[in-house]
Structures are given as C-alpha cells and as structure tokens.
Amino acid sequence: MTIADQQAIAAEEHFDAIVVGAGFAGMYMLHRLRAMGLTARVYERGDGVGGTWYWNRYPGARCDLESMEYSYSFDQDLEQEWNWAEKYGTQPELLKYANHVADRFDLRRDIVFETRVDSAHQDKTSGLWTVKTDAGTVATATHLILATGNLSTPQLPKIDGVGAFQGRTFHTGQWPHEGVDFSGRRVGVIGTGSSAVQAIPKIAAQAAHLTVFQRTANFSIPARHGPLAAEDREAQKARYGEIREAAYQTPFGIAKYGSPTKSAFDVSDAERQEIYEQAWALGGQAIMFTFTDLLLDAKANETAAEFVRERIRETVNDPEVAELLCPKDHPIGTKRLCLDSFYYETYNRDNVSLINVKQTPITRIDANAVVIDSQVYEIDDLVLATGFDAMTGAARDIDIRNEKGTSLADSWVAGPQTYLGLMVAEFPNMYLITGPQSPGVKSQMILSIEHHVDMIADLIEKMRTDGSRRVVPANPAQEDWVVENNNVANMTLYPAAASWYMGANIPGKPRVFMPYVAGVKQYRATCAEIVADNWRGFEFSP
Ligand code: NA7
Questions:
Q1: Bridge partner list, 117
Q2: How many domains would you assign to the chain?
Q3: Do 27 and 141 have their domain in common?
Q4: pLDDT class for 11, splitting at 50, 70, 90?
C-alpha cells in the first residue's frame, strides 16, 4: 500500500450502504435507506440524476411505456401531484420528473455527482466493502448496492476506422446535452434498434441526406402517442392504486394490457386479422398481448409477424426497401419491440436511403465516409445507434472483488449467475437492482425497480432485527435459480433471436438468455414465498 493509499484510507468515510448510480433505482434506494435511518452515499457518473433519461438525449427519445404506469408508485402524493403532459413521456419530461423526485425527497445531499466508482473490494476480516472512485475518494460500507442500470454501457461497433472519422460522431446513449443540429448535413446512422427507430424520423426531417445502415430489420409498431388529456389523466389518478395492483398481476407488469386468454388458433383467420387490426390501431405494445401463444409457438408468432410485415409493405412505397425493412430472421417480440412515430414512412422521403449491411458488413469507416466493399457513402456526421453491453456491462466494468479476492467479472465469465437477479453467491452484502435473471428489462422497469429496492430494504431490516451482519445466497439456491431461468427461457421463442437479451450484440459475450421471463406475477409470487419461508436460499451470519 502506498503512502497516498494509506492517507486516503485514513480519511475514508463509512456508510451503512453505498449505492452506485442515481437513476430511478438508485434514487428510490437512497430514499428507502434514509427512511430506515441508515447512512448512505450514492455515486453517480453524470452531473445529474435520471440514469437512462440523463444519458439518452438523442432526438425523439421517449419511453415506450405509457408514463402513467412508467413512474414511481411508492408515494401517493407524488403520484397525484405530477402531471404527465404526454402519453409516452419524452426524454426531457422524464428527466424533469427524475429531478422533481430528487428535489422533493431532498436526495441530492447524499449523491456525489460526476464520480465513477472504479472498484469495490470486500475486506476478508470485517466484510466491509471499500469503494474507490475516479475522484480518488475512498469510502467503506456494510452494504454495496449496484443500481447501475441494464442499458448503461454504450457499445461502440468494432468497425475498422471508427475512431478515425473526421466528422462529428455521436452515440445515442451519450448524446450531447446541448443537442445537435443536423441541418444541411449528410448523416449516417448505424443501427436500427429502438434508439435508431426513434431518432431516424427526427434526423431525416432535418438533415440534407440520411443514410441508414441496417444489419437487422426490427419490428416496429406505431406508438400513436399524443398529449395526455387532463380528464384521462385524472380518471387514471382516481384509480391509481387499483392500476398499480393490476400491474403486479400481469406478466410484464403493465396494467394497460390485460393478459390474453386465447391462442392465436382459437379464432378464425378473419377474427385474428380483426384483432390484429384493432391492436395496430391502438398502437404501442398491444399486438403482443392479443394471444397467449405469441411468444411460445412459432406458428402463432408468425401470424402476428406477417401482419406487421404487411403493414410495412403497405407503408413503404419502394417494394425493395419495404422488403429490406421486413424482419424475417427472428420471431416478433423476441428482440425488443420498437415503438415509433412515422418510422417506416420516413423511408418514403427523397433524402433517406437504406443500406443493407447484413450480408456485406461495413468494411471500414474513412475520414469522411462509410465504406462497404467498393461503395463509398460520404457523410458529415456519424450516429452510432449501436446499443449497449446490456444487463451485465456496467457491473462488470467495476473492479468488484469479494472477500476471497474473486472478481465478479471472473465469476460471470460464462454468463451471469445470480439468485433472483438480486444477489450473487459468494458476494455477501452485494445487491443488484433488476439484475440478470430477474424480470427487469422484460417488465415495466420502475415497477421491478421498486420491487427489488423494497426487497433489499426488507433484507437489511431483517438483518438488523436478527443481529446478522452478513447475507449471501447459498450456492445451490443460486444454481437452481439459474437453471429455472434457463428452463423458462427455453420454453419460449426468446432464445431464437440474436438479441441483447442473449448477449448476442457483443462480440465474445457468452450467449446466455439473461432476463427471467416467467413474468412479473410469477416472479413476485416466488419471491413472496421465499421470504415467507424465512428467506429460503439466503444465508445470514453474525
Ligand atoms: P439495440 O436495440 O441493441 O440496437 C443496436 C442496433 O445497432 C441494432 O440494430 C444492431 O444490429 C446495430 N449494430 C450494432 N453493431 C453494429 C455493427 N457493427 N454494424 C451494424 N449494425 C450494428 O440498441 P438501442 O439503443 O436501439 O436500444 C436499446 C434499448 O434501449 C432498447 O431495447 C430499449 O429497451 C431502449 P443487430 O440487431 O445487432 O444486428
């Protein structure tokens, strides 16, 4: 240990809990810890709260769940006093909401901004976590809580020359706060996931020319968003408790869409078409909630997939472009379903071209162009809508070592292993909020965040009551949960897609299906049963 290290450690502060990240998860966690009378410190990379909604400021960024549901439920006054202006919150509106929550609950005084956590090492004698940051600070804590987000580590594509581009380069997940003016510019967008699908219509409306480089066509459904009428909002507020309760009883934690009751083949072709037409007219995720077997049976799925392809063919004037935009290599809903506003219509504009990079990938990026074989596409600006090292990237980026010196990255080398997506065997007193093998990304995120935060608070409370200082999941319980997670996934069509749920978007990342997809209702019931059985699978010690 150097003298500087010794001085730093001598000056260190101690907290009951250190929370990494001040997005929606970190903020609510801090609020709960404080209410329990515990000391807590939150470290946040950005200079403000909001996580996803702090970083993803690209044009058109908005939530793909309706804001009346995608919002905190933990405080009824907060629910009643906040007025969402639009059906699907825009990024600025969601960020404003996050800031409102931070102010309302006076959260900022325990959040250290513009500070990245570099390492968290657990002492083998005391069991305390020592957390070091890029600001050179050192602090210890009894509990380490990773509220680091599932889509928070932007992925730069491994394309030759990407760093040598001389124009402006933007990643959708690290968008400049002052915004970007594309007027008169030739813009290239790489990627056609949710971020690109939202950004492309906006960029096309401004740029001189937009070239979209598509590797995988994605299914996108019109969001049909618009202002949220005051009477609609107030009617929902009047029955907010009921809406939240209904959400818990659904697979995806979304009350708006009730659980379907029929198979796609329980109805005639004409009836099925009519049901899809209605869902299409409603927009949003509705189509995926029409039949019970859309994510279980390939033939059932294909009926919905083909319905959407037909809408694409109807919308896009050039039949070749339309065909290129029709997803054919994965069942609908097995990659994150995109919601859009005039995405397919954008390809009817004279200033937009679509380039297929599936069979022939981008060869390289030059100082002023994207090059594919001998084709040179000159651009002024490059937008990388290339996604994230999802679900495990942020936790793996921190040098986390348990009391034996084993790193989390090493123990997850073959894919993440967790108990309930909440804790990791052999990593005592370390908690994940909506970690892999929990419903998180396959649910209304804020609902799942609140569930996990409440469970972590309950665990810590139980330890206080019992006089335990250490909790860790037992290995067999974790192994069983990992097997259960895989078994559930293998009963569905999800593993059929090369998605970020599978780690497939990151070269070299193990292909393991990460979210728990038996649904929110099932997951909550399992957790409640485990807790009632005296936290079965968790080991507590003094
Ligand atoms: P996604 O959904 O991971 O999309 C990334 C896109 O970038 C996707 O179309 C990728 O194609 C494409 N991509 C990535 N690397 C390359 C290279 N090298 N060449 C060409 N194309 C590439 O990220 P988003 O930001 O859109 O959305 C993330 C989540 O945020 C979303 O699901 C919502 O939950 C919100 P691929 O499909 O891998 O072939």
A1: 133
A2: 3
A3: yes
A4: low
